[in-house]
Each structure stands twice: as structure tokens, then as C-alpha cells.
From TrEMBL:
<feature type="active site" description="Proton acceptor">
    <location>
        <position position="176"/>
    </location>
</feature>
<feature type="binding site">
    <location>
        <position position="152"/>
    </location>
    <ligand>
        <name>substrate</name>
    </ligand>
</feature>
<feature type="binding site">
    <location>
        <position position="121"/>
    </location>
    <ligand>
        <name>substrate</name>
    </ligand>
</feature>
<dbReference type="InterPro" id="IPR036291">
    <property type="entry name" value="NAD(P)-bd_dom_sf"/>
</dbReference>
<dbReference type="GO" id="GO:0030060">
    <property type="term" value="F:L-malate dehydrogenase (NAD+) activity"/>
</dbReference>
<dbReference type="Pfam" id="PF02866">
    <property type="entry name" value="Ldh_1_C"/>
</dbReference>
<feature type="binding site">
    <location>
        <begin position="10"/>
        <end position="15"/>
    </location>
    <ligand>
        <name>NAD(+)</name>
    </ligand>
</feature>
<dbReference type="InterPro" id="IPR011275">
    <property type="entry name" value="Malate_DH_type3"/>
</dbReference>
<feature type="domain" description="Lactate/malate dehydrogenase C-terminal">
    <location>
        <begin position="148"/>
        <end position="307"/>
    </location>
</feature>
<feature type="binding site">
    <location>
        <position position="34"/>
    </location>
    <ligand>
        <name>NAD(+)</name>
    </ligand>
</feature>
<dbReference type="Pfam" id="PF00056">
    <property type="entry name" value="Ldh_1_N"/>
</dbReference>
<dbReference type="GO" id="GO:0004459">
    <property type="term" value="F:L-lactate dehydrogenase (NAD+) activity"/>
</dbReference>
<dbReference type="GO" id="GO:0006099">
    <property type="term" value="P:tricarboxylic acid cycle"/>
</dbReference>
<dbReference type="InterPro" id="IPR022383">
    <property type="entry name" value="Lactate/malate_DH_C"/>
</dbReference>
<protein>
    <recommendedName>
        <fullName>Malate dehydrogenase</fullName>
        <ecNumber>1.1.1.37</ecNumber>
    </recommendedName>
</protein>
<feature type="binding site">
    <location>
        <position position="83"/>
    </location>
    <ligand>
        <name>substrate</name>
    </ligand>
</feature>
<dbReference type="InterPro" id="IPR001236">
    <property type="entry name" value="Lactate/malate_DH_N"/>
</dbReference>
Amino acid sequence: MARKKIALIGAGNIGGTLAHLAAIKELGDIVLFDVVEGVPQGKALDLAQSGPVEGFDARLKGTNDYADIAGADVIIVTAGVPRKPGMSRDDLLGINLKVMKAVGEGIAANAPDAFVICITNPLDAMVWALREFSGLPHNKVVGMAGVLDSARFRHFLAEEFDVSVQDVTAFVLGGHGDTMVPVVEYSTVAGIPIPDLVKMGWSTQEKIDAIVQRTRSGGGEIVALLKTGSAYYAPATSAIEMAEAYLKDKKRVLPCAAYLDGKYGVDGLYVGVPVVIGAGGVERIVEIALNDQAKVNFQVSVDAVKELLVACKGIDSSL
Ligand code: TXD
């Protein structure tokens, strides 16, 4: 059986980390694409030279030519400009929209059968635009945010409860940004919902509220610390989890920015919801019952995504 092919569009901080993880996990051969000359080639060569030590077999190629992504099984898109301190995700809209157009056209021409994971911010708008520009089926284009946001939530909860991160599951819905909705009732330690853990005296409502808030601004916290870029280790590993679910037909249930055509009362938008990812791409949208507060928060999040799409359409009349 021939190896799978993974194309990474954008060879920056996340792109390089994605390539490293995909190689170590032997997910397939890897193509790193970027508009900057030399960087994808240099990273690919450096990573390939780690192979003999690490013991992985994967071909790594850096390129500035879209023809090299031909036949890719999975494409992960990080191309664009990252958030700088003081810059909101939405400031990135104009610049990254143009990038999505180039990337969408490159994918359509060279790898129209791929499963495409978009990471570029502002995520919920960029994944929608990338889908529009590429013309791929909606179930083959998905956005990565929820896995990262829920990983942040899980990390903070595990610290608070002093238990293994492995035993903490967390649910995060809605758009990627300040309006995301961490759903506390569906977040558990070994199946015990957080509200029960609060009743058991494991934490207080105030502390949980503070964790929810910290999760919402989790990206900004790292931007403020790094000063010259945004998070990349956790975003990369989150996207790899989604890629693996597709490549290995694992049918993982993961929170992703998925296209909704009626579910959750949303039509024609990409919003973060739990989905099943397997060989069919997004095989199912999991529609969970939300309590009244979560419904209100989810709607705020949906409205924020809608606003972004209006802005996108204002910038590019072909959308
Ligand atoms: O949860 C999430 N979705 C995110 C999103 C979490 C963290 C960061 N998130 C966003 O990912 C971030 O706001 C950025 O929009 C992307 C990529 O972040 P990264 O940290 O990898 O940014 P870099 O290091 O600046 O890399 C971007 C690369 C860089 O090498 C550029 O030269 C390249 O993108 N680039 C392009 N590649 C291909 N094609 C075009 N047009 C292009 N333009 C820039």
C-alpha cells in the first residue's frame, strides 16, 4: 500500500510543527508549501534529517509550486498572517481572505479529493471562504479550533482538579474567539460532570467561571507572552488529531468548525460543533441539547461568525 500524502499549505510555526508531528507519527509523505522561497525547502530538509535518529520513514519535500500537492489525501492550511499583540483575529480578515483565494484555487486545481483542514484565522470565516474558493464538498472542508479550545479547557481543569489530563473531557462549542462556548455540563472527569464535581467540593463555581474565561482568551494569553506570534504546538497537534481521524477512519467525535445546513438552527455557516470524522470526512454533525444559557451564548457566537461573513462578502464580491 502506497503511503498517504499530506500537504501543508503554509510552512510557518504551525506548518513546521505539523510536518514534524506527521513525520514522527508516520502519517505519510509530507509536502510543505509556502510562498516564501527557501523556508519550506529548508524545513523539509531539516526534518528529513531527523528521520534517521527518530526512525521514521517519510519523504519530505518543500516547495513553492502547487503542482507538488497533487493527489494529497489531507491538506492542512495555515497560510496567512498570524495575530500580533493588540491585533484582533478580525483584523486579519482582509489579508487572509486573499490568501484563502489563492490556496482554494491551488487545491481545486491539484488535489480536489483531499480532506482539507483550515487553521488560518479568523477561523470560522476563513474555513468558509476556503470552501467557497475551492468548491470542494462541505464535508471535506473543516476548521480546526474546537480541539484546541477544548484541549486548553482540559488542561486548566486537570490542573484545578489535580488529575490526569487524560481523564478530563471537555466540550467547547461556537466560534473560535472570545464568543466560544465552553459547555460545563458536558465536561467531565472520568464521566463525572463538572457541576457534580463542584457539589462534591472539588472546586468552586467561581474557579470554574475563571477557567471558562481563561479558555476563551487562551489564544490571546499566549500571543501576549510570545509577543512575536501565536500558539503553535497545541494548534498543530490538534489538527493532526483531526487528520489522523480521517486517514485511519477512526470516527472520532471532535469539536470542529463544520458547515451547518439547518442543525443547531444554523444555515449556511461554519461554526464549532461536535462532529464525527472518518474516511468520509465530516460524516455526522452531533446535535446536542443545550441549556438556555448555552443556547444564548451559542447564538452570540453564531452572530459573530455571521458578521465576519458579511465583512468577507464586502471585501470580495465573488463570495
Ligand atoms: O485555533 C486556531 N485555528 C488557531 C489559528 C490557533 C493558532 C493560530 N491560528 C492561526 O494560524 C494564525 O492566526 C495564523 O492565521 C495561522 C498560522 O499561524 P502560524 O503561527 O503558523 O503563522 P506563521 O508562522 O506566520 O506562518 C504562516 C505562513 C508563513 O510561512 C507565510 O509565509 C505563509 O503562511 N503564507 C502563505 N503560504 C502559502 N500561500 C500564501 N498565499 C501565503 N501567505 C503567507
